[in-house]
Amino acid sequence: MLFLVQDGITNGAIYALLGLALVLVFAVTRVILIPQGEFVTYGALTYATLSAGQVPGTARLAVAMGVVAFGLDLFAGRRSLHPSLVGRAFAVNIILPVVILALTSWLAGRQTPIAINIALSLLIVAAIGLFLYRIAFQPIAHTSVLVLLIASVGCHLALQGFGLVFFGAEGQRGPTLSDAAFTVGPLRFSGQSVAVYAITVAFIIGLWLFFGFTLYGKALRATAVNRLGARLVGIRTTLSGQIAFLLASVIGAISGILIVPITTLYYDTGFLIGLKGFIAAIIGGLVSYPLTAIAALVVGSVEAFSSFYASNFKEVIVFTLILPVLVLRSLAAPAVEEEKD
Amino acid sequence: MMMQRLPIIVFALVMAAIPFIPGMPPFWIVLLDNIGLAALVAMGLVLLTGVGGLTSFGQAAFCGFGAYTTAVLTTAYGVSPWLTLPASLLVSAIAAVVLGLVTVRLSGHYLPLGTIAWGIGLFYLFSKLEFLGRNDGISGIPPLTIGPLKMLDPGTIYFAIWIAVLIAALLTMNLLDSRTGRAIRALRRGHVAAEAFGVQTPRAKLLVFIYAAVLAGLSGWLYAHFQRAANPTPFGAQAGIEYLFIAVVGGAGYVWGGVLGAGIVVILKEILQSYLPYLFHGEGQLETIVFGILLVVLLQLAPTGVWPWLMTRLPFKPKRRPPDTSLTLPARKRTADVPAVLLQIDNARKQFGGVIAVNNVSFDVQAREIVALIGPNGAGKSTTFNLITGVLTSSGGTISVLGRNINNAPPQEVAKLGIARTFQHVKLVPDMSVLENVAIGAHLRGHAGAISSMLRLDRSDEARLLAEAARQIERVGLGDQIDALAGSLSLGQQRIVEIARALCVDPILLLLDEPAAGLRHMEKQQLATLLRQLRDGGMSVLLVEHDMGFVMDLADRIVVLDFGTKIAEGAPQAIKTNPEVIKAYLGAVA
Known about the structure:
The complex is a heterodimer of chains A (341) and B (590). With 341 residues, chain A is mostly helical. Chain A is 74% helix and 2% strand. Chain A contains 14 helices and 2 strands; from the N terminus they run ααααααββαααααααα. Chain A has a two-stranded antiparallel sheet. Chain A is globular, with a radius of gyration of 20 Å. By secondary structure, chain B is of the alpha/beta class. In chain B, the strands form 4 sheets. Chain B has a 6-stranded mixed beta sheet, sandwiched between helices. In chain B, helix 1 packs antiparallel against helix 6 (154-176) and helix 18 (459-475) crosses helix 19 (491-503). Chains A and B meet through helix 6, helix 11, helix 13 and helix 14 of A and helix 5, helix 10 and helix 12 of B.
C-alpha cells in the first residue's frame, strides 16, 4: 500500500511540474501547450544521448529553428532595421544555438560530468521552446484560443516526428542523478525520488515568488489578464510570451531528466505524460498553482493504484478521472459571456 | 431553387461517373472512399466547431462506437449489416448524449481539453475490452449487400459512402438554413443574445454534439464494412486531431469545406507518405513533421480555411430569393384590458461582491409609454436591464411583468412574456446576413424542429419567419441592407438591426440599451419617429441613452440613476431643472 502511495507521489510530482508549466503558458499566452510532452522527451532523450557521448539531433534542430526565427524577426522588423535590433536578433537566434551546438559537438565523446550534460540539455530545450513561440505562436498571438490550440497540435505533431528522427523508435534511459538511497521504516527512498520531490517543491515556491514579488512576474500576469492593457502600460507582450515558453520548456526538460533514469522513455512517451499533467492543470482550472499541484498528486496516486489493481485499465481510469471534475466544474461555473474570435 | 441545387447535382453526377472512367486506377477509388469517410466526420465537426463554436478532438471515438457496434453485432450475433446501421447510429448518439451532458456546458478551452481526455480514455477502453477483441480488434465483418450485390471491393462500397456524404451534406445544409440552424449559428458568438430571444442554448449545443457524433458513427459503420475489420488505432487521439485538422483546412464554417478539407488532407497524406521517404531517405514518420508544420503555416496564412478563399474568387455570387412579405405570423395575444402598469420594479438590488451596482431601485413602466433610464457611466443602467431580462440574478427585490413576478426567470422565459431587448455592445452574428440575424428575433414564433428542418418540412414555418423579419427590417429603414452581412454594417446601423430583431419578438415592452449611440442626426430623428409610432401602436419602450437632446424630446418620463441609486424621476422638464440630477452630471455646484 505505502509503496503505491510513494510511487504515486513521485509520478504526481512530475505531473505537478508539467501542470504548473501548462498553467503558466496558458495564463500568459492563452496557448494550451500540447507540445509540453515533447519538451519532456526532448529534455530526457537529449540528456540520455549526451550521456552516451553523442551529439543529439535536438541541438541541430535548435540551430535550424533559430535561423527561421531570425528570418521572421527580420521580416517583422523590415520597416525599421536598426543595427541594434538586427544585432540582438542575431545574437539570440543565431549565435546562441550555434554556440550550444558547437559546445555539444566539442564535448561529445568526452567524459563529461552529469551536471554539464544536464545544463546542456536544458539550454538546448530552452532554445527550442523560445524559438517555438517565436515561429509558431507569436505571429498569431492575437487570435482565438481555438486557433492557438490547433497550432499547438501542429507543433506537437511536428516535434514528435522530429523526436522519432533524432532518437529513433527505441526507448532510452539516462544515468541517475544520485545513487544514494536510504530507508525510513518500510519505505526505501532513492536519491532520484528525493531529487524529484525537492525540485518540484523548489519550482512551486520559485514560481510563487516570481509571480508574486518580481516585476517580470507581475508583467506576465498583467499580460495574461489583458494583452492590450499590458501593451499600453509598456509591457512587451511578445517578451512575456517568450519568457513563458522559456520557463515551460525548461520545466518540461527538467521533468524529463528527472524521470529518464526511473523509466524508459520513447520518442512519443511525452505526449501521454504531458496529458496527465493536463488533467492536473484542468482540475486546477488552468489558473491555480497550488490546486494544480495537489491535483497532480491525486492523478499520480490514482495511476499508481490502478496500475497495481487494474493495470489493463490504467489509462482508461486516469483519463476518465477528468469527467467527474468536468461535471463539477460545469455545474459550478457561472454563465460567463465569452467574446470569441 | 434550381440554381441553388445545380452545383450539388453536378457534383453528384461527377462523383457517380468517376468509377466508370476507363482506366481509373483502383487505388484512386480507395483514396476517394477514404475521403468520403473522412468528409462525413469533418462535416459533423463543421457544424460542431466551425458553426457552433464547440471544439472537439474526440470525434474519432464516435467513429469507434459506430464501427464496433456493427462489428460486434454482425460477427458475434450474425445480425444483418443494414440492421446494424440504426444500432450504430443509436449507440453513437447515446454516447454523445452522455458525454455531451458532461462536456458541452464547459466554457471555452475546457471543452477541447475535455474532449481530448475522454477521446484518449475511450481509445484505451476499445483496446482493452475483451469483447471488442482488445488491440487486435474484430475481423471478418460481413460486407454490405443489396440483394445479390456484395459490396466487397472499394469500387462498389464507393457508392454507399458517397451517397451517405451527399445525403449528409444536404441534410446539414438544410439544417443550417432554418430556425434551428440560426440558433446554432448564433452559439459561437456567445449565448446571451440568443437566449434573450428564447433560444435554449444548452439544448442547441447538445443537438449539434449529437448530430456530429451520429455522422461520425455513420462514418465508422461504413468504415467497418469497407475494411471488414475494426481495430482501435483509427479511433485514437491522433485520428481525432486529424479530423479537426481536416475541418480547419477546408474551412471550419462551411459544409463543403469539410469535404474539400478531407480531399486535401487525405491526398496530401498519401503523397507525403509515398514520396517523402525517397526525398529524405529517412525512416520514421516524416509525414507527421511536414503535416504539423503545414498546419502551423496554414493557420498563419489562412485561418479560415481553403473553401471560403475559393468562394471569394468565384465570378458569380449565389443570390437568395427575397422573402415573400405577404405571409404573416400570428400576433401575440394581448389582453384587451392591458393593466396600466406593464413592468414594475420594486426595490431591485444587485451586488457584485462588495460593489452595489443597483441599490434598491424602484420604478415602473406603464402601457403606451416611453421611459428613459439615464445616469452617468457606472450608474447601474445596463445592470438594471440585465436584471429585468434575466441575464443576471438579482440579490433582492422583485420585478414583475403584467403583475406576474418574474424574479430570476431565465432570459428565455422573459422573452416569452413579450420583453425584447437590444444590447449596449452590439451582439449580432457578423457572418450572418441582416435578414438571418433579425429572424433570430422571431425564434419563439416558429415551431419547426431540427429534424423537420433537415427534411425541409419546415418551409411554410420558415417562410413566415423570414417574412416577418423582412417586414421589421423594412420598418426600421434598412431594406437595402437586408442581404448584407451584419458585420459589414456601420455600428449605428447594427444597433438598428438589433432593434429590428427585438421587434420580431412582437414585444409588449422594448428595452433599448443606448440605441442612438453612433447614429447621425437624421438617423436619430428617424429612430425617434419610429419609437413614437411603436408607442402609439401600443408598445412600451424603456431605454438607456446618453444623448440628452434625444431623450428629452422623446421620453414621456425619465428615471435617473446615480451610483446604483434612483435620485430622481419625472417628466423631462422637471428632470432638466432637478438640482440632484445636475449635481450628478456636473458635480457639486460651487
